Amino acid sequence: MTRLAQTAGLTDTQGEIVSAVREFVDKAIIPQAQELEHSDTYPTAIVEQMKEMGLFGLTIPEEYGGIGESLLTYA
Q1: Where would I find the Acyl-CoA dehydrogenase/oxidase N-terminal domain in this sequence (predicted)?
Q2: Domain 24-75 is of which CATH architecture?
Q3: Which residue of 2, 10, 61, 73 has the smallest Cβ count within 10 Å?
Q4: Residue 74 near residue 22, CB atoms below 8 Å
Q5: Crossing angle, helix 12-24 and helix 44-53, to 10 degrees?
């Protein structure tokens, strides 16, 4: 098992975030990755979905509009 696949010791919230991101990657990124890479296209729709998921504010404290998670979750 690779280090990235290990989720033992995560809180319930961290585990839910990791699961949601894995599902997102499997469904939205992997099927398009090669095409986007070859066409040198910026993935606007993917980035918008990531914004909606709150991924860019994951480590920002809640009082500043983020989720307030740790760097472990972000990694």
Answers
A1: 11-75
A2: Orthogonal Bundle (1.10)
A3: 2
A4: no
A5: 160
CA proximity to 53, closest of 33, 36, 73, 31:
73
Q: In the chain, what are the domain boundaries?
A: 24-75
Torsion of CA 59, 62, 64, 67, to 10 degrees: 40
Residue-wise DSSP of 7-74: -TT--HHHHHHHHHHHHHIIIIIHHHHHHHHHHT---HHHHHHHHHHTGGGTTS-GGGTS----HHHH
Q: What is the pLDDT of residue 10?
A: 87
What confidence tens digit (pLDDT) does each residue in 12-56 have?
A: 989 999 999 999 999 999 999 999 999 988 999 999 999 999 999
Flag whether the pTM goes above 0.85: no
